[in-house]
Amino acid sequence: MNWKQLFSSSVGRKLVMALTGIFLIVFLIVHCYVNANVLFSNGEENFNRAAHFMSTNLLVRITELGLFAGFLIHIVQGYLLEYHNRSRRSSKYAMTAGNLTSTWYSRSMALLGTLILLFLIVHLAHFWVPSRFGELAEVSYAGKSYHNLYGRMKDIFSQEWVVGLYVAGCFSLSWHLLHGFQSAFQTMGWNHRRYSAAIGSAGIGFSIVVPTLFALMPIFMYFGWEIDLGAVTLLF
Amino acid sequence: MEHYSMDLTLRVWRQRNCTENGRFETYQVSDISSEMSFLEMIDVLNERLLQEGKEPIAFDHDCREGICGSCSMVINGRPHGPWKGTTTCQLHMRAFKHGDAITIEPFRADAFPVIKDLMVNRSAFDRIIQAGGYVSVNTGNAVDGNAIPIEKDKADEAFAAATCIGCGACVAACKNSSAMLFVSAKVSHLSLLPQGAPEKASRVLGMVAQMDKEGFGSCTNTFACEAECPKEISVLNIARLNREYLAASLAGD
Ligand code: HEM
Ligand code: SF4
Ligand code: FES
Question: What mean pLDDT value characterizes chain B?
Fold first, then answer.
């Protein structure tokens, strides 16, 4: 009885948002770390090898199923929550406090989430679909054949509008996380005088650093930039 | 501070009862003293309306000293008006200047149906209290309150939560009409004290279930409630409620 209550109550619904949100945050860290290879010298080989590892490792593939479930639950629950919360006040205010008492992005989580979702659909079509269904060219390193996902990125990010779209997607993500990160901790009850400032700062840091790194990837590719780090590889 | 008098344009929500639709009605008031309270300003207008044979504006009030929590209204989009940590009855007209236009609306939430004009029915809060916002006391000799040791920090925090006057401004301010700040204040002020500890789990489960049944929304942590609360109740109480709810759901029997 308590389990059902936990996930059907207003507090439980938010807990689902928080847990799936944190899971997606962990995914973002891994995704950002792997892809950051493209920013550096020898990015093509390093990134293609890393992507190969991510698409062939069994554990990663199983986690990927969890990732799809996590996204689905977060999105469905997010829209249900938004619908439910919007229906609690049938007679609207003539005037509201607006940004005086809360931030616009904390009030716009469903809108920002929708922008992320639209971006996500385009993004999956650009990379995930061709990589899974074998429409990519092959390259070989040390006699072994790899999908040239890096080459695909080069192609895709040669168009200005795509670069613009990805940067816009990163802005949406940044604002979604600016509220979502600390909100998730509050929802899980992990907010306390002693460490709420630390969580707040970590949230702001994460929401700026990770989307900025992501945004730099299409920009670097478009302009053909790379940072020379010698032989450094972030992940194989 | 300089005293002054002012003329104002008031846009007031008029609604005959909970079933009819309401609308805004505009009134001019003049010679309002900066030293009047906001409610006294409405009293002046109501006096005039009565003399003109019109229906006065219905609004809730009782103590007029910021402790009963009944003076609910939204003034220019702000529950209890523009001053921080202040109820409408403690809001003074020096918050406004000559020539201002002021929009006055009731607290709007489906869980707080309008009774008339600016008066809303906040009995949903009473039913939430009935669902667990108490400590059970057995009959017999009264126990000496001071016999139970309480940590000073805990007592302070419990007292801070207990200053909630149940006014409902948190619901009015929230885009989701969530009552979490109120419920978390009530949960916290009891569960932090040894007297409240035995019923900790059933209290939080019962009060949240009733809160949901009354039709309040889910909290999305925008914290507009904390900004508008006349008693400046902290959202850390909401985190405590979430913690206790999770613990009670997972570990309860
Ligand atoms: C990589 C993608 C995403 C990440 C990392 C993410 C992360 C988060 C986090 C951490 C929260 C806070 C949970 C809480 O308040 O307890 C959250 C809330 C939310 N997310 Fe997402 N999210 C993502 C995508 C989406 C998408 C695609 C939607 C589409 C609807 C969405 C809609 C929402 C909504 C409605 C909330 C709750 C609003 C609130 O708490 O104020 N999110 N998200
Ligand atoms: S928490 Fe604050 S705003 Fe909410 S009912 Fe209590 S005193 Fe009023
Ligand atoms: S009338 Fe009692 S708090 Fe305002």
Answer: 96
Q: How confident is the model at residue B1 (pLDDT cuts 50, 70, 90)?
A: low
pLDDT at A232 over 90: no
Look at residue A231 in the predicted model and tell me its pLDDT: 67
Whole-angstrom distance, CA of residue B246 vs CA of residue A188: 8
What is the average per-residue pLDDT within A185-189? 96
Q: Are residue B14 and residue B109 in the same domain, yes or no? A: yes
CB contact under 8 A, B223 and A193: no
Domain count, chain A: 1
| Cβ pair B110, A88 in contact under 8 A | yes
For ligand 2, atom 7, name the residue with the nearest CA.
B164
**pLDDT, tens digit, 9 for 90 and up, residues B118-139:** 999 999 999 999 999 999 988 8
pLDDT above 80: residue B253: no
ipTM given for this complex? 0.93
User: Across residues B16-41, what is the average pLDDT?
Assistant: 96
Pocket test for ligand 1, best of A16, A17, A71, A181 (most atoms within 8 A of CB): A17
Q: Which one of B115, B131, B149 terminates a domain?
A: B115
Token pair, residue B201, equals 């789990």
Alpha-carbon distances of B194 from A120, B97, B149, B152, B162, rounded to whole Å: 50, 49, 8, 12, 15
Residue type, B75: I
Find the CB nearest B239 among A88, A97, A186: A186
| Domain housing A48 | 9-87+109-223
A:64-103 residues touching chain B, CB 8 A cutoff: 81, 84-98, 100-103
Give residue B43's pLDDT band: very low, low, confident or very high (50, 70, 90): very high
Instruction: Give the mutation target among B59, B67, B72 for probing the ligand 3 site: most ligand atoms within 8 A of CB.
Output: B67
* Number of domains present in the structure of chain B: 2
Interface test mutation site (partner B, options A14, A101, A182, max chain B beta carbons within 10 A) = A101
C-alpha distances in angstroms, A5 versus A12, A100, A190, B253?
A: 7, 35, 21, 13
Do B170 and B107 fall within a single domain? no
- Residue at A98 is within a domain: no
Residues B26 and B104 in one domain: yes
pTM: 0.94
CB distance B253 to B192 below 8 Å: no
Task: Decide if A198 is inside a domain.
Answer: yes
Whether B88 and B129 map to the same domain: the answer is: no
Q: Are B96 and B102 within 8 A, CB to CB?
A: yes
